[in-house]
Amino acid sequence: MALAVILGGGESGYGSAVLAAVKGYDVLLSDSGSLREPYRTQLVERNIPFEEGGHTLEKILKAEFVVKSPGIPETAPVVRAIREKGIPVISEIEFAGRYLAPQTRTVCITGSNGKTTTTTLIYEILRAAGFRASLAGNIGQSLALQVAEIPQADQPDWYVIELSSFQLDGMYDFRADIALLLNITPDHLDRYDHRMENYVASKFRITQNLRPQDLFVYNGEDPETLGWLPRVLPSLAAETCAFYAKKGEGAVRYDTETGMMSWGDGFRFPAAEMRIKGLHNIANALAAVVACRRAGVPDEVIMQTLREFGGVEHRLEPVATIDGVEYINDSKATNVDSVWYALQAMTRPTVWIAGGTDKGNDYAVLMPLVREHVKALVCMGLDNAKLVRSFTGVVPVYDTASLEDALKACREAAEPGDTVLLSPACASFDLFRNYEDRGEQFKKAVRSMAE
């Protein structure tokens, strides 16, 4: 039997290993670190071979193909060795896509910001309309595991798939039925030779293989998207649809004067009725409206779900109000653009918590919003020099190296009627496992204060 090697033993890797075993491959899952639970135990129970703490190249280089987890960079020695041998390297989504049921369709969402919110909103709308829908990609259970464990006859009507640039990099034959590109702003440039054009090209891989009956939805006001689009349009067979959230132009738009979201043929919805706030969420909702109308969802179902949808965890998530001060968890904001939207959505004086592992951020774009909304900046990280240097003299700056000290500084700076906003603009790895861990610890600490 042919050997399928799976690099990385997280959600994506574990699901790929299970799918490969189900489809009759010899399997080796290889992880340079220690496997986390429950994946390790489940691999043992399924009798799927694995190694941890390093890679055995002699075995790996016998693979017919390799499924690489998105967190592993191309510069990793094991990946370089695989490439030199000429062995195909694909993503979990590419692998799982080979085995999708004929009746199953996909909505695929990418972008630098807003992916999780838009993906979840589309999923909720489809479910409310009575479709069998399932989340996959960067959210929920891996697509590979779902394809492996759900019989083809019982596969959902729609997989709603959140796609990072890293997942798109390993996709070649996979095709979306509805593809959404929400925006492109600098992020993860360390993985793209610090060249923005490489990152943009990666995002546009979501348009690969689209057919005339498919749909490509994009942000008609995003400069990077509009700059690259002419390179794609000559060979793009799919129908295209742009949405506009700022200027009120185009068929799918938000009018800032009337407060109405609309689509030329009659869809009209007041954005003020949405539970999730901010211009960025209006843009996310417009994209979701386009996708769900194309999927056949009635307008009244879309509108009702827009009224009820409360957003996603770690994205402008209200935590508690303590002594008149509102605490908001926006830990998912790991780049400057996400923070821009968060600050833009603030309606009260804001004590802003930022910091972590800087990804080459340029904070200049935030200056107008900081001057308008922020009364103090609390830097939380092991190296806050860049943040401190950027905002000293603009607002009071507190330099802290732990969550506990950061919250002490917030209590000192905040008054009744203020908001404390955790919106880091940075990765979390200096103090936390990931942005989820950062957000969970923040919420736990805030709730302890409330008690």
Structure description:
The chain has 451 residues and is α/β, with parallel strands linked by helices. Helices cover 35% and strands 21% of the residues. The protein contains 17 helices and 20 strands. It has helices spanning 11-22, 39-45, 57-60, 77-85, 92-97, 115-128, 143-149, 165-169, 196-203, 223-232, 279-294, 299-308, 336-344, 367-373, 385-391, 403-413, 435-450, and strands at 3-7, 26-31, 50-52, 65-68, 89-90, 105-110, 133-137, 158-162, 178-181, 215-219, 239-244, 252-255, 260-263, 267-270, 317-322, 325-329, 350-354, 374-380, 397-400, 419-422. Strands 7-8-6-9-10-11-12-13-14 form a 9-stranded mixed sheet, covered by helices on one side. Helix 1 runs parallel beside helix 7 (143-149) and helix 6 (115-128) packs across helix 11 (279-294). The longest helix is centred in the middle third of the chain and has 16 residues, at 279-294. The chain is globular, with a radius of gyration of 22 Å. It starts with a strand and ends with a helix. The mean pLDDT is 93.
Ranges with pLDDT <50 over ≥5 residues?
Answer: none
- Provide the spatial order of strands within the biggest beta sheet: 7-8-6-9-10-11-12-13-14
Bulk shape? globular
What is the CA–CA distance across the termini?
A: 59 Å
Structural class label: alpha/beta
- The portion of residues forming beta strands comes to 15-25%
Counting DSSP H or I runs of 4 or more residues, the number of helices is: 17
Largest sheet entry: 9 strands, mixed
Number of separate strands:
20
Overall radius of gyration:
22 Å
Topology:
Blueprint: E1 3-7, H1 11-22, E2 26-31, H2 39-45, E3 50-52, H3 57-60, E4 65-68, H4 77-85, E5 89-90, H5 92-97, E6 105-110, H6 115-128, E7 133-137, H7 143-149, E8 158-162, H8 165-169, E9 178-181, H9 196-203, E10 215-219, H10 223-232, E11 239-244, E12 252-255, E13 260-263, E14 267-270, H11 279-294, H12 299-308, E15 317-322, E16 325-329, H13 336-344, E17 350-354, H14 367-373, E18 374-380, H15 385-391, E19 397-400, H16 403-413, E20 419-422, H17 435-450
Parallel strand pairs: 1-2, 1-4, 2-3, 4-5, 6-8, 6-9, 7-8, 9-10, 10-11, 11-12, 16-20, 17-18, 17-20, 18-19
Antiparallel strand pairs: 12-13, 13-14, 15-16
